Amino acid sequence: MEFFKSFFAAIIISFFLFHANATNVTHDGRSLIIDGVHRVLISGSIHYPRSTAQMWPDLIRKAKEGGLDTIETYVFWNAHEPIRRQYDFSGNLDLIRFIKTIQDEGLYAVLRIGPYVCAEWNYGGFPVWLHNLPGVSFRTKNDVFMNEMQNFTTLIVDMIKNENLFASQGGPIILAQIENEFGNVMGPYGAGGKEYIQWCSNMAESLGVGVPWIMCQQQDAPKPMINTCNGFYCDEFKPNNPSSPKMWTENWTGWFKSWGGADPYRTAEDLAYSVARFYQKGGTFQNYYMYHGGTNFGRTSGGPYITTTYDYNAPLDEYGNPNQPKWGHLKQLHDVLHSMEYTLTHGDVTNTDLGNSVSTTVYSTKEKSSCFLSNAHNQTDAVVKFGGIDYYVPAWSVSILPDCKDEAYNTAKVYAQTSVLVKKPNKAEDEPNSLEWVWRPENIERTAVQGKGDHHANRIIDQKAMANDASDYLWYMTRVELPKDDPLVTGKATLRVTDSGHVLHAYVNGEYIGSQWAQYGSQKYVFEKEVKLNPGKNLISLLSATVGLQNYGPMFDLNVTGVLSPVELVAHKGNEKVVKDLSSHKWSYKVGLDGVANKLYETDCPSKLKWSADSIPVDRNMTWYKTTFKAPLGNAPVVVDLLGLGKGHAWVNGHSLGRYWPSYIADEHACQTVACDYRGAYSDKKCVSKCGEPTQRWYHVPRSFLKDGENTLVLFEEFGGNPSGVQFQTVEIGTACVNAHEGKKVELSCHNRPISRINFASFGDPQGVCGSFKKTECESTEDAVSILEKECVGKESCSFEISEDKFGKAYCAIKRLAVEAVC
Ligand SMILES: *[C@@H]1O[C@H](CO)[C@@H](O)[C@H](O)[C@H]1NC(C)=O
Ligand SMILES: *[C@@H]1O[C@H](CO)[C@@H](O)[C@H](O)[C@H]1NC(C)=O
Ligand SMILES: *[C@@H]1O[C@H](CO)[C@@H](O)[C@H](O)[C@H]1NC(C)=O
Ligand SMILES: *[C@@H]1O[C@H](CO)[C@@H](O)[C@H](O)[C@H]1NC(C)=O
Ligand SMILES: *[C@@H]1O[C@H](CO)[C@@H](O)[C@H](O)[C@H]1NC(C)=O
Ligand SMILES: CC(=O)N[C@H]1CO[C@H](CO)[C@@H](O)[C@@H]1O
């Protein structure tokens, strides 16, 4: 009895100890309810492995300053469990530290465990060892798969619980997600897929996290899972359960980039429009995918053919700088939406269709009403008569009137500053203008020349099964014995290799004969090249290099990677062809690069392998280069310009910067000739730029990778290139512009650096865009340049209201101020 008394006392005490600060998260059909309050929440995705732990506080602070109250992340299974039951939560994989950083800033968190994440991440986050487990079948009712998924999901939930990070324990995590966009692909999985989703739901529920679970893009999500929407627009989305609030878990702020692809760009006007429409139509939780995209360090990018940059044209750029005006324009929207939280979650809703795609929505409560006026027409501006007042609502825009009278915001009227970022040379003391290099060849003697491998089989094996994703590189080698009179010896012969992508290099008898690769979206190709074969022994060596494993599609995990059957030698005799299939020959396999095995990328390369400073080779494939440099002064983000190089991998002080491929030029024809117009539905093909330029020339070097004194850059060059132009640079705001109407309060900021000069300022009717403003006849009586020089120069930022009081009289109907400041 005594025992039971103290036992229960202990339980009660621990309940109060751990749950005294518990946050109660529930929901109804209207919104999430946190501690009894119906909430309008604005969230943004930041994936912790795509930046560094040192960057997290600043990123999260800028997200908070940008008006977010929630940060969302996936959990990356293959990063945390690279080898079965061997875990890594160090460095930028420190999930707990990331969640605690969110908590320290006072924001909520959404934990999308998946553990399938898609995310343009290598293999969608699945470990390749999972694919190699006997009897496994992904994302369906399969015991091997479900056991592993449950094992990992439980591990993550337990880690989070141990640190009291769920809201139910007083932590910041208000929602958890299981599976991910399965509804988009579930057809081919049939009944097994349906049972699997039910199992996911039960398994998640059994973990007792004390916060609601979500399932995105899952129309048949079992109760109590909340199904949510992902897309460029989600205003027409309806959850499958009347007690689920309307939630948008992925609003794509831009798009990802692939090798050979152009630079994506989604305008601030269109992104703001999609968000305003969503809240107009009853949405109460929205997440930007991505708010900060970041970098695919190491071999983490998916695809295949996803670039190392994952900038995503997000509100915070790859390096963490506000992407202006997007960041600022959305911040203003968030402030307005938050001010309407009560009416949006409690008001009676009246929608009125005024025709020609114009509509109004009124949220009214006893105390207060809030209104939206929206014009979904993609060409025609509208003047909307509302409550006796005329409102000008441009095409493809929404006006928000928090009190149903004054327009606090219109999605197409951008007053936030535009920042033009520039790259500046490394000004560290004594840093020479060009770097001094040493080099050494990758040793391909044993593979290309001798054909020696570590594994052997009489067939061609999937690269995933053979390499277990330990490296991008896998050698496939086989021998062919040919008699003197074989037509392959006496006549013309070609080598024909079917390849799933991603990159193939072929050698015959130690001689390089050619390479081939594909592009994003079309992996499979046939490599065909004339070869010279000898009587007697011949060696065929094929080097396959992956560029990120596929991350999306029904049963994408089964997609074969690397060299495929058949591999053939074709003899041409007149019009006749004699084909010799080598697929079932004895093949030898060797995983990885010799230089990586010898840790050439490490600063204090331990091996005795010598580097040479003599005649630095140019356009030599399979070559290692090394140099030293001093870190650029200051704390602006650092990039390395790799223009001149082909394709390969880069490391600074042993930290991987990711794959580089500046020689891959963005498709010249992908860019439209018409000017980018924010009006009309966005797609990833719209408004792209930088066609005909290297897909990615600059690579992020996080400050935390650098140290005082000497730093080391190591490059493995696969195709051949010229390192003489390689440069370290900093990314800083070059100019900041504002272009806004009379009556607006605006801010000019150089972010931690003083404004040095006012290049242009005109109050009246200035024309043009940032970088090419021009004055017109209509110009104020006072000199706007000298007014702003007094007000802004020497300060990091200045803010002021645009008025005739300040800038003098101007005699035109609608007056605007345009400013270009130099940082
Ligand atoms: C949590 O909030 C819901 C709805 O607001 C309420 O019904 C429930 O009693 C609350 N639970 C606790 C433990 O406070
Ligand atoms: C995960 O699997 C390991 C054995 O491989 C086992 O020891 C561990 O208890 C499992 N974890 C869970 C939560 O099932
Ligand atoms: C990989 O999968 C995609 C779609 O899931 C398919 O279109 C493509 O042909 C596959 N590639 C190979 C090499 O099987
Ligand atoms: C690769 O290097 C070999 C030997 O250095 C050379 O013969 C060949 O032309 C090179 N190939 C390419 C594509 O640069
Ligand atoms: C504008 O909308 C019409 C009708 O929905 C559509 O046919 C047209 O393609 C759209 N134009 C643009 C530029 O989006
Ligand atoms: C839910 C949704 O809107 N999905 C769309 C997202 O965007 C892609 C690519 O543009 C479309 O194919 C999807 O239908």
Automatic annotation (TrEMBL):
The molecular function terms in GO held by this entry are:
beta-galactosidase activity; carbohydrate binding
| Family listed | Belongs to the glycosyl hydrolase 35 family.
Question: Key word Repressor present in the record?
Answer: no
GO-annotated biological processes? galactose catabolic process; plant-type cell wall modification
Swiss-Prot/TrEMBL catalytic activity: Hydrolysis of terminal non-reducing beta-D-galactose residues in beta-D-galactosides
Q: Which domain of life, per UniProt?
A: Eukaryota
Q: Principal localization?
A: secreted
Q: Which PANTHER family match?
A: BETA-GALACTOSIDASE RELATED
- Residues forming the SUEL-type lectin domain are 740-823
Q: What is this protein called?
A: Beta-galactosidase
Q: Which organism is it from?
A: Theobroma cacao
Instruction: Tell me the leader sequence span.
Output: 1-22
The UniProt entry, under PROSITE patterns, shows: GLYCOSYL_HYDROL_F35, SUEL_LECTIN
| Protein's UniProt keywords contain Signal | yes
Which EC class heads this enzyme's classification? hydrolase
Localization of this protein = Secreted, Extracellular space, Apoplast
